[in-house]
């Protein structure tokens, strides 16, 4: 019995050693270079993020502005790239006249001087709206951007034409598979090299459609990211990468990352080998994904020498910390 116990112990030690060697980041090649910075909504006005709900009008909760950029505009995107962003995130909605409007909200009531569901309007009508109309930082006493955002809502086609060589992340706001089919048609009309610089995330149904209809575009949805991370934590120690993690854009909360086999370098290498890009968010809490890596304290939680992706709402501040500011 003693001999069997010793044999079993040695076998377990050998397995443990194999798992360690297969997953330790100490033995993995380290990708040199600076982090890849993703500017969420471009250069945008920040707002009080406490107790947010799906229908919260964040424009009325704006913090005192430190700049005059409005999210999801060409001007905002250009400023983000100039500040050091490698990728800019933008939101889209299909319009009744066949375009994709670049705008965050499901309705135009909060930020603009218009009313109604965004996708139920024509681009011609949306173009007439003042997208800075609803922003206030003092309880509606003043509206510093009112009258300054008329005609500034762009189309996706304009974004693609304005930034032909830049990386973009497109957010599909609906769960309509038909929207995924329409967006897939737009993406498939682009050269293969250009498609490779675009990522798409959003509702499960449209993202599934895009994933099936397009080649070279990395995607992710809530169901896919949960499937990817849960399965990877379950058997990623083998070196196998779940299907949901392949050809994907992965969002990893910073408090979940240490639980991923091989974090950081071996994990990043495994994902790169299956054409997936990894971006770290702020902590996952209360069943919700966080906003981003937006402060020096959050940035300090990243591994030393981290060269993967970072999702941020504060591109100017984080670009300076990461050594990517162009100032």
Summarize the structure.
With 327 residues, this protein is α/β, with parallel strands linked by helices. The protein is built from 11 helices and 9 strands.
What is the element string, with H for helices and E for strands? Answer: HEHEEHHEHHEHEHEHEHEH
Total beta strands: 9
Query: How would you characterize the largest beta sheet?
Result: 9 strands, mixed
Give me the number of helical elements: 11
What descriptors fit this protein?
TIM Barrel; alpha/beta
How does this structure look, described?
This protein has a domain at 47-68 and 94-194 and 203-216: Phosphatidylinositol (PI) phosphodiesterase (TIM Barrel). The radius of gyration is 22 Å and the shape is globular. It has eleven helices and nine strands. Strands 1, 2, 3, 4, 5, 6, 7, 8 and 9 form a nine-stranded mixed sheet that branches. The protein is an alpha/beta fold. Strand 7 (249-253), helix 9 (265-273) and strand 8 (277-281) form a beta-alpha-beta unit. The termini are far apart.
Give the helix/strand layout.
Blueprint (H helix, E strand, L loop, with lengths): L1 H22 L12 E4 L34 H10 L3 E8 L5 E3 L20 H4 L29 H7 L4 E6 L4 H12 L3 H4 L2 E5 L1 H10 L4 E4 H14 L13 E5 L11 H9 L3 E5 L14 H5 L8 E4 L2 H7 L6
Parallel strand pairs: 1-2, 1-9, 2-4, 4-5, 5-6, 7-8, 8-9
Antiparallel strand pairs: 2-3
